[in-house]
């Protein structure tokens, strides 16, 4: 068995490209080998900022011989008057067989020629020379470039190529205009510690040979090394390193021979909010911050941590020069933190509220005016939410104030320099301006969640202001016709709608989303040219969009079966879709409850009874909302005791259903439906059964109304007609 090594040597690659390339090669290389009838024991991927490599072990020397059955021309085209035609001769010649090898078979389209072709396996070396260029130039990614005078595209210029099949160099040439790169066994060591070429004796020597040249080609090993060194370095200053996973992955892809170096900065900079210092370190310098104590949980809130005047940088240079490296990095962070302190001090010279007029100078969207206009709309929507909840004065006040101030920090110097700190700095400046803790917390929380796995706002004020902000964004962007389609969603409207739903669910907020959308559209139309017909269309588009998001969240996050989702959201049933939007939390409760009673078997106990009643009830004219039998059932028309029993069961069910609706507690309703099931069964079958479709119109309608009432009580939970029987 053979081992093949491919190393593509480049100028420094973008850190993000390595992960992208690994992901693509991890699936594409095994697939292309399989397509070439080549098996292997393993496909190992390696990479550093200057190289991308694959080591394939356990390759055969050649493809296996194989037989392939090939369909040729029709029998009519292949033979004329019993003699082979030119088409037959050409087909035989192209497949390396004789006409005598033809087999005529009947197919759906008539008789056709078939042959079995024996194919001799090709040597693996020749196949690899064809596959390697596909692997290299089949990679996809952002910001590919051209170099020299050729047309080849890659993230960075390719400077060398190693291709070894065991000890033998596999001849490959990459031509890029006048520039040629031919394969060899020569790689390159670390730029500082082992500059120059490094000969690789055989493919299996790759990792060890480059390790001797101070290049660790294994990203997983580099990551483990960086984590261990970073924790050790932090412990040396009696602290714990905060290791952000995204930053760690980026740093792994920035170095070939990692060395953790501890640097320090002036303690005076600890007066700056920790979020600012950490943002400076992580986002701009790729440093790991250090906090006080041992074993501190990196996921703990920053407010509970005490930042130390140290940082850890991962050097790609000479470990012997760590002191010089630390000093250089300290000078850089000192300058950055000096800027941060200047911004922080300058921003606090005026109250946060005094920044509001400056929002007129910040554009929200070209066709939608300024951030000041958006902030005013957020206040208006927050008032609508307050009215719906409703809230006492002490609860209203921080919401109204936070809604007014939530975007004020956008025009501060600090957020201008570090946009990722919007909200965070608003919280700091609100407290510095004498605002309450509730207002300050709401300002930072209203941006939550920032992603699918992010925390949700914990305070009512943060929830309401966050909902107001997102509802305004959805209404205003939709008004421009910028509705997400496919993967295009430049304003992250899907994420905004998901956040609206998740915040309502998490806060257990009794909000009518449909009415909120209507109110927000009406408020938006006051200062924007939206006609009544356009407003109605906008309402429909937004409702449809939220129903799509509800469906997605139910299925992907809540794990609800598709048919139960249909039973809650309705399929072409306005009553259910309207209900799903007027009470978002009730829709979630019903979906989760349906899933639970399917799992415990309770759904099966009532399914047949409810569905049989519902199917027949369609032939009557009772509406789908009436629950009480008063006025729709005439007991004088009863012919059998089973009708009387059915009527009594429905009458007893009414208060239970109303309570279930009011408390969103549907177990009582299902328990009662289960108890009614035998009564309904007697109504349909047995000695006291009745013919629902009686010849007498009054009797027939009375019985259909009984069934319609049962259907209506079940509809309080879901549309059972949409549920698939287990």
Please name the defining characteristics of this protein.
726 residues; four-stranded antiparallel sheet; single chain; alpha+beta
Give a description of the structure:
Helix 19 packs antiparallel against helix 21. It contains 25 helices and 20 strands. The model has no long low-confidence stretch (mean pLDDT 93). Helices cover 49% and strands 14% of the residues. It is α+β, with helices and mostly antiparallel strands and 726 residues long. Strand 13 (186-188) and strand 14 form a beta hairpin.
Mean pLDDT: 93
Number of helices: 25
Strand numbers in spatial order across the main sheet? 2-3-1-9-10
Q: Which regions contain 5 or more consecutive residues with pLDDT less than 50? A: none
- Based on helices, strands and strand pairing, what is the structural class? alpha+beta
| Cα distance spanning the termini | 52 Å
Let me know the largest β-sheet: 5 strands, antiparallel
Count of DSSP E strands? 20
Q: Approximately what portion of the residues adopt beta-strand conformation? A: 5-15%
Helix-residue proportion = 40-55%
General form: flat
Q: Please state the CA-atom Rg, rounded to the nearest Å.
A: 36 Å
Give a brief rundown of this model:
The protein is α+β, with helices and mostly antiparallel strands.
């Amino acid at each position: 068995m053979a081992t093949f090594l491919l190393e593509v040597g480049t100028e420094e690659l973008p850190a993000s490209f390595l992960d992208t390339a690994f992901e693509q090669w991890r699936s594409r290389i095994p697939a292309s080998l399989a397509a070439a009838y080549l098996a292997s024991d393993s496909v190992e991927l390696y990479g550093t900022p200057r190289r991308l490599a694959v080591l394939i072990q356990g390759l055969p020397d050649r493809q296996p011989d194989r037989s392939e059955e090939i369909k040729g021309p029709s029998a009519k085209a292949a033979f004329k008057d019993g003699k082979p035609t030119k088409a037959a001769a050409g087909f035989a010649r192209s497949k390396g067989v004789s006409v005598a090898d033809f087999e005529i078979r009947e197919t759906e389209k008539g008789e056709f020629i078939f042959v079995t072709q024996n194919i001799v396996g090709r040597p693996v070396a020749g196949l690899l020379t064809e596959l390697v260029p596909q692997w290299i130039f089949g990679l996809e990614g952002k910001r590919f470039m051209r170099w020299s005078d050729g047309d080849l595209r890659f993230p960075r210029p390719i400077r060398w190529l190693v291709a070894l099949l065991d000890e033998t160099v596999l001849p490959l040439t990459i031509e890029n205009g006048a520039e040629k790169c031919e394969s060899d066994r020569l790689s390159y060591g670390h730029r500082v510690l082992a500059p120059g070429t490094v000969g690789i004796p055989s493919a299996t020597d790759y990792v060890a040979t480059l390790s001797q040249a101070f290049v660790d080609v294994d990203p997983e090993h580099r990551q483990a090394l960086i984590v261990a060194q970073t924790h050790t370095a932090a412990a040396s200053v009696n602290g714990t390193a905060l290791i952000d996973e995204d930053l760690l992955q980026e740093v792994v892809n920035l170095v070939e021979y990692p060395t953790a170096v501890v640097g320090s900065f002036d303690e005076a900079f600890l007066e700056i909010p920790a979020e600012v210092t950490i943002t400076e370190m992580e986002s701009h310098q790729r440093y790991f911050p250090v906090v006080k104590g041992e074993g501190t949980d990196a996921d703990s809130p920053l407010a509970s941590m005490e930042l130390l005047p140290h940082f850890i940088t991962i050097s790609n240079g000479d470990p012997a020069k760590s002191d010089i490296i630390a000093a250089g990095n300290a000078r850089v962070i000192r300058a950055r933190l000096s800027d941060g302190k200047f911004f922080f001090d300058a921003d606090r010279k005026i109250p946060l509220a005094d920044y509001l007029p400056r929002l007129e100078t910040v554009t929200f969207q070209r066709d939608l005016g300024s951030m000041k206009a958006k902030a005013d709309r957020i206040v208006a929507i927050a008032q609508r939410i307050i009215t719906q909840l409703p809230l006492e004065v002490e609860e209203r006040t921080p919401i109204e104030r936070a809604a007014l101030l939530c975007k004020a920090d956008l025009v501060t110097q600090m957020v201008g320099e570090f946009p990722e700190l919007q909200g965070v700095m608003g919280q700091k400046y609100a407290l510095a301006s004498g605002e309450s803790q509730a207002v300050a917390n709401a300002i930072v929380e209203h941006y939550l969640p920032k992603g699918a796995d992010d925390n949700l706002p914990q305070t009512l004020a943060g929830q309401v202001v966050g909902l107001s902000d997102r509802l305004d964004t959805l209404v205003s962007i939709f008004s421009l016709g910028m509705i997400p389609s496919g993967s295009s969603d430049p304003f992250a409207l899907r994420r905004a709608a998901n956040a609206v739903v998740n915040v309502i669910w998490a806060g257990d907020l009794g909000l009518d989303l449909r009415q909120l959308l209507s109110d927000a559209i009406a408020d938006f139309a006051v200062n924007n040219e939206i006609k009544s017909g356009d407003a109605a269309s906008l309402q429909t588009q937004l409702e449809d969009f939220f129903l799509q998001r509800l469906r997605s969240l139910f299925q992907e996050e809540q794990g609800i079966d598709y048919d139960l989702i249909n039973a809650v959201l309705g399929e072409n049933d306005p009553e259910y879709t309207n209900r799903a939007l007027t009470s978002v939390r009730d829709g979630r409760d019903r979906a989760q409850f349906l899933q639970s009673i399917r799992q415990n078997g309770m759904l099966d106990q009532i399914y047949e009874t409810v569905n049989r009643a519902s199917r027949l009830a369609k032939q009557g004219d009772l509406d789908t909302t009436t629950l009480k039998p008063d006025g729709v059932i005439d007991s004088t028309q009863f012919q059998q005791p089973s009708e009387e029993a059915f009527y009594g069961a429905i009458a007893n069910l009414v208060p239970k259903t109303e309570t279930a609706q009011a408390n969103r507690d549907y177990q009582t309703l299902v328990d009662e439906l289960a108890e009614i099931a035998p009564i309904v069964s007697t109504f349909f079958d047995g000695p006291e059964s009745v013919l629902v479709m009686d010849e007498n119109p009054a009797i027939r309608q009375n019985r259909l109304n009984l069934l319609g009432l049962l259907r209506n009580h079940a509809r309080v939970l879901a549309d059972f007609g949409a549920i698939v029987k287990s």
